[in-house]
């Protein structure tokens, strides 16, 4: 079978199979699921041949781009896993300001340093090593998603290998059903994207940040204040509140942060000023206000918070409601962490921007996600129970979930609008009638796009 490919096909039992199965999975809490084979594709024709081989053998197809799915969606029992690490290309056209990138390209480590040479930027994932493949398909909450929108909104076209084993271009006019679905279906997408064509934006000339650190006993007061003002802050500021234990410290703190993406220090000071007007500022443990920063520094902070080689349990919720309802519901997730490396984020999306017509269609003004970070395998069940309790507290103020931090084998929430969900299933039935592509990974029942407590 290997003669069919320029890349390499690994079968179970062969040297290299185990490494190919899970070696590139970011989360050290790795699944036991066993693909029928793993294809390390190095060109588009390999992907085409891989899809055709799977169809001949009666295997399903799973895909890996950057390997950063927390739940290791790429590793599926009895499927052909097509790993795209070896298909690695980038090119920029200064005329159109469009960058073309293969899905295994890493947004922060590779795409932005490349675009920086042309004075351009793409709002890729916060952690620099996230692959653009899985990230863009599920919407992509990139830098300043609040002001610049979802990264998938900047896809102008994709090249896709379909269930028929054909390589096609999809954009707003051609194969527009695939183009619509690719922007939000996430792991439910029924094709393999081999190239993204992405609209870029000018590289901001001046990055600045504000960080206020508060003791956790001010959590309710500070978060109630932030809840009331975040929608008034300039859309050039990414606003994140996070509770975490700073390196070398023993106590977790609440950090209220703003990163402004402007062109001058004056614009930055003005954009960040509302965050300095916090009435509890004089009780902050420390304050950095509108100081220059760099993307490299911000990416370094992300990498430090998300260390490689650790076990992760992750869950999330789109929150909605008044501060009186939302803030108390968040307390457990934010103030009672089971390990020192655990962190919980509150990410402003306010004021909500209208979304274009695409599969991605679930958001609210506040996104919250908890990342339980640890090393001891024997703690899996204990920490899972903690995370489930923290998410249960959030249920009364939860509208749904973002695919990027979800694990449907643990719990299922609503992740797109009803209309979009119906349309996605209809397109899938037409494009992949035999269910060649593995789709959403669940424990037993297929996804229903409803919050589990509302069924
Ligand atoms: C440390 C860390 C930080 C993160 N930060 C962010 C963030 O800031 N914002 C955010 O939105 N998300 C973030 N995420 C979540 C991340 O975007 C998702 O897990 C995403 O799926 C990762 O993409 P990937 O290609 O690296 O993953 P993979 O595990 O390779 O892919 C995940 C799944 O996406 C589908 N897929 C991937 N590539 C293709 C393709 N070419 N064609 C068809 N289907 C494909 C497949 O179903 C695949 O199994 C983060 C994750 C980690 C681990």
What is the fold's blueprint, element by element?
Elements (H helix, E strand, L loop, with lengths): L7 E3 L6 H6 L14 E4 L3 H14 L2 E5 L14 E5 L6 E4 L4 E4 L5 H10 L3 E2 L10 H6 L7 H4 L6 E7 L5 E5 L4 H7 L9 E8 L1 E2 L3 E10 L3 H11 L7 E8 L8 E10 L2 H12 L9 E8 L1 H11 L5 E9 L3 H13 L7 E6 L17 E9 L5 H15 L3 E3 L17 H14 L24
Parallel strand pairs: 2-4, 3-4
Antiparallel strand pairs: 1-2, 5-6, 6-10, 7-11, 8-9, 8-10, 12-14, 12-15, 13-14, 13-17, 16-18, 16-19, 17-18
Helix pairs in contact: 7-10, 10-11
Bound molecules: flavin-adenine dinucleotide.
Flavin-adenine dinucleotide binds next to strand 3, helix 4 and strand 10.
Tell me what the structure shows.
This protein has 455 residues and is an alpha+beta fold. The chain has three domains: 2-83, Uridine Diphospho-n-acetylenolpyruvylglucosamine Reductase, domain 2 (2-Layer Sandwich); 90-203, 2-Layer Sandwich (Uridine Diphospho-n-acetylenolpyruvylglucosamine Reductase, domain 3), CATH 3.30.465; 206-405, Vanillyl-alcohol Oxidase, Chain A, domain 3, CATH 3.40.462.20. The protein has twelve helices and 19 strands. The chain has helices spanning 17-22, 44-57, 107-116, 132-137, 145-148, 176-182, 219-229, 265-276, 295-305, 323-335, 380-394, 418-431; strands at residues 8-10, 37-40, 60-64, 79-83, 90-93, 98-101, 120-121, 155-161, 167-171, 192-199, 201-202, 206-215, 237-244, 253-262, 286-293, 311-319, 343-348, 366-374, 398-400. The chain has an eight-stranded antiparallel β-sheet, sandwiched between helices. It is globular and about 70 Å long.
